[in-house]
Amino acid sequence: MTKKTLSTEPYKGVRDFYPDDQAIQNHIFGVWKTVARRYGYEEYNASLLEPTELYTSKTSTEIVNEQTYTFTDRGERSVTLRPEMTPTVARMVAGKRRELSFPLRWFSIPNVFRYERPQRGRLREHWQLNADIFGVESTVAEVEIIALAYDIMKAFSAKNGDFEIRINNRKLLNTLPNGAIPLLDKKTKMSSEEFENEWKKISDTPFTLSVDEETRGVLDKLAARGITNALFDPHIVRGFDYYTGIVFEIFDTDPQNNRSLFGGGRYDNLLELFGDEKVSAVGFGMGDVTIRDFLETHGLLPKTISATTVMLCPLSMEFTETAETLARELRAQNISVAVYYGEKKIGDQIKIADKKHVTFIIVVGDEEKNSSRYTLKKLEDGTETAGTADEIAKKLSSV
Ligand code: HAM
């Protein structure tokens, strides 16, 4: 009988995060959290399982009908893996509406699931920063939310020319004939000829829209803050049914990576689904897959991110114990230290340290054991510093 082996591949369209990928993910999440907190946004979270009915009432028909992962649980309830966070946060805010002090500024980094055809920038599971502000009717909310998105791009070291903020208004789009919004939503997937033909089916006059006062006002306030790469774009519609006002998307200007990096807008009526009171809301979602592609395309990813600052390399196995003692002393001073375990020679240990992007090594042998003095070596340029464990810890704390 031949033994059947299991595939080491993950499920189609989802990712494993090996340490190098996880380090990049942590870097992205770190920037998201830092900037969101800088704007006074509080972090929340929820389960990835939701009752299916949360999505059937008011969201994108394409996502609900074609892209959700839905199953029946053992109690015959229909359950869906969240395809986005907005219905969940609307449910949570509505649930405690009376106890919460508005305006609320909330953020979360959930993983969301969409059954899409996996391709560059599109996977079946991605993480999404969601930042939303609740209880503000005026467009100061839009300006803040877009400024927050812009500052995230800046915190990733992007320049104004690297990305573009495209803004439109659902109020304006609602003046177009029936069928216009879904058609515009699919426009980027069509040739201009296909679009013209489809447009003729719904209207006798060619497609035009000119900027309205509300959108103009938002663009002016953004420009006054130095956000000069925001513009009116009549083709931005956003696929979800719940948007009621300003909608926006951020695009990479590099044609290689022509994907939306963030998308969001105002959705003033979504909370009504859970009761009679209206709560104004504005927010956006920003995906980890598309921002990583953006950072790679523009050379903005940190080159090496290591979990370990110093690796201790015993000359032979008999010095492992001495290395352990030194490791304990350094860890007590908050230094990240790993001891090499194994029988490899020093040269090969250094190769391992290099591959793991470790910054420093200390070789531990007879001399170190007898004198309790060590030599800290920086792998990048070979510079050395000698000293006791304490002196080495001080040196490491200052780099
Ligand atoms: P969305 O445009 O569907 O909006 O998604 C937001 C962002 O998530 C996109 O711009 C993109 O970066 C990323 N994204 C979406 N689908 C995928 C995918 N299949 N693979 C990788 N990345 C993807 C929303 O979800 C709204 N709920 C955002 C929002 C929050 N509106 C108001 N508040």
Please supply descriptive tags for the structure shown above.
five-stranded mixed sheet, binds histidyl-adenosine monophosphate, alpha+beta, 17 strands, 399 residues, elongated
Stretches where pLDDT is under 50 for at least 5 consecutive residues are: none
Q: Pairing-aware structural class of the strands and helices? A: alpha+beta
Please state the average pLDDT score. Answer: 94
- Cα(first) to Cα(last) distance is 59 Å
What level of helicity do the residues show?
Answer: 25-40%
Number of strands: 17
Main β-sheet, in a few words? Answer: 9 strands, mixed
Rounded Rg:
27 Å
What is the percentage of strand-forming residues?
15-25%
Number of helices: 14
Overall, the morphology is: elongated
The small molecules bound here are: histidyl-adenosine monophosphate
What does this structure look like?
The protein is of the alpha+beta class and 399 residues long. The strands form 3 sheets. Strands 1, 5, 6, 7, 8, 9, 10, 11 and 12 form a 9-stranded mixed sheet that branches. The longest helix is centred in the N-terminal third of the chain and has 20 residues. The model has no long low-confidence stretch (mean pLDDT 94). The chain contains 14 helices and 17 strands. The protein is 34% helix and 21% strand. Histidyl-adenosine monophosphate binds next to strand 7, strand 11, strand 12 and helix 10.
